Amino acid sequence: MCGFVGAFDLNSGSAPIAEGLKEELRAQVLEMSKKIRHRGPDWSGVYTGNNAILSHERLSIVDPLSGKQPLVSDDEKIILAANGEIYNHKEIRARFEGSYKFRTGSDCEVIIPLYKKYRESGDFSKMIEELSGIFAFALYDSEHDVYLIARDEIGVIPLYQGWDKAGRYYVASELKALEGDCQTIEEFPNGHYFYSKDEKPTRWYHRDWESFDAVKNAPKATDDKGEVINPSVIEKVCNGLESAVKAQLMSDVPYGVLLSGGLDSSIIAAVTQKYSKKRIETDSKEAAWWPQLHSFAVGLEGSPDLIAAQKAADYIGTVHHEVHFTIQEALDALPDVIYHIETYDITTVRASTPMYLLARVIKSMGIKMVLSGEGSDELFGGYLYFHKAPNAQEFHEELVRKMSKLHLYDCLRANKSLMAWGVEGRVPFLDKDFIDIAMGLNPSDKMNIKLPDGKQRMEKWILRKAFEDLLPESIAWRQKEQFSDGVGYNWIDTLKKMTEEKVSDAEFARRENRFPVNPPKTKEEYYYREIYSRLFPSDSAARCVPHEAGVACSTAKALEWDAAWKNMDEPSGRAIAGVHDKAY
């Protein structure tokens, strides 16, 4: 995981760029790149060409010694700056060993021969589909003076694009690198690529499961009474996630797991422990360099997550680290958190703050990569509001909507909170192949159906069933706690109280004049917006932040499921009255 800045179309006119201007732009790009050096504290590199400049800040996880970037092709005509991990790089590398001379052991170098293979046909969707991983990259072909920008299917890795007053095109791993130099800034769309000969980005990621019709008749694991009739469906979920976790243990540096004590992180920790004794890079033939798996939990003293995480760690057998924070420490960190996560979204700020504090401790212990449980709730309908889904079609279509927005919320939080301290986060639930397994399930197997005893089936039942043998019963069947709640309810309650006092009624009444772009809907959001606007003053930056009503992390569309939610706008899971405390 790293960070990069790319500047393209340097020749804004027909004449070649003057040498003095090129040097000026190079200096500018280096200053932009400095703003994201926290993403790559291990090494810096820059390429300067006649019509492109690529600067890279490296966090070395795979091939620390020779994998410096920007990467250069064997014929020195193609330059690549990449951020992310390509988990199937060994398979791709093996296919090109005879036709391409690899210069490094970097997993990202396989993008170059893939580009060469598809350059003539221009079928870049097919090219990118061959990559299994989390990535954003900028590739410059100096021989043909063209460039290719791409981002992974879900948007696990952040990427932004911008244009300066001369019309030059920029891309950067974080918004802060573009703020002040670009007149217009946008998020680069996930699941898309942009080829410079085209007019706009092209979507490369398409799936049948985006339509309810494609999954409504999928094989069912259970009957209408909740009895298992097809255990192979459950086995497919188990095997698919285990394969994803195993592939993502690719690392030449010490790694760990985030363990909140909830279902998702506990599953990832348990499966990681299962494979951690052997080195994945040798097909599990050699002993791992760091055979003891370390787990990390964060919370206020006595919080629900800390208690549950210790139980899970004891059962799984990790070397467990419990990190406490105080309310004041978290409040003091808010400006730094908002600077790094680049959003004023309430849910994201609430949840990012403990994660940001935790990441600093993880880095201090020499851990450079952690696996986490993001994405499970969007795949399986884990949020408590899904109990109110009126039918299988509404349930599935909400999942599709949630998946399409992950890059705005959970993925953004996990990536930027950790990368603020140079810690890479990997998310096995969002493995491309596992997404297809989970989203291809019959939605009725995920729904909270009413059981013969009158109770509702617990959210994410099929996932719990698939991994119940790896976890203590109290964890496998623990009710959902959203991360910002689980670290300690007093954290959320304090934020509400503090922001209510800090933002006056008069200020809030004038919010549309103060913030004409996305006016804040609550005083808490107003408070975060004030901090954000000092750090990122442009209207373009403000528009990069999502602004949608919801309840307990729902989309706006799902508010139609319950009349009582119509005028609510509260992301905490405790907002779902009667479900959070009495569902089971």
Automatic annotation (TrEMBL):
One of its GO terms (biological process) is asparagine biosynthetic process. InterPro entries: Asn_synth_AEB (IPR006426), Asn_synthase (IPR001962), Asn_Synthetase (IPR050795), AsnB_N (IPR033738), GATase_2_dom (IPR017932), Ntn_hydrolases_N (IPR029055), Rossmann-like_a/b/a_fold (IPR014729). The keyword Ligase applies. ATP binds at residues 258, 298, 372-373. Residues 2-199 form the Glutamine amidotransferase type-2 domain. The keyword Methyltransferase does not apply. The record marks 374 as: Important for beta-aspartyl-AMP intermediate formation. One of its GO terms (molecular function) is ATP binding. The active site is at residue 2. Gene3D superfamilies: Glutamine Phosphoribosylpyrophosphate, subunit 1, domain 1 (3.60.20.10), HUPs (3.40.50.620). Its EC number is 6.3.5.4. Coiled coil: none annotated. It catalyses: L-aspartate + L-glutamine + ATP + H2O = L-asparagine + L-glutamate + AMP + diphosphate + H(+). L-glutamine binds at residue 107. CDD domains: Asn_synthase_B_C, AsnB. Pathway: Amino-acid biosynthesis; L-asparagine biosynthesis; L-asparagine from L-aspartate (L-Gln route): step 1/1. Pfam families: Asn_synthase, GATase_7. Belongs to the asparagine synthetase family. This is asparagine synthase (glutamine-hydrolyzing). It comes from Treponema bryantii.
